[in-house]
Amino acid sequence: MLVLNRFVVASQDADGFVSQAHAALTALAEAPGYLRGELTRSLDEPEHWCLVTEWQNVGSYRRALGRFDVKVNATPLLARSLMEPSAYETLALAAPGGALEVIAGDRAV
Question: Locate the ABM domain: which residues (predicted)?
Answer without folding.
Answer: 2-64
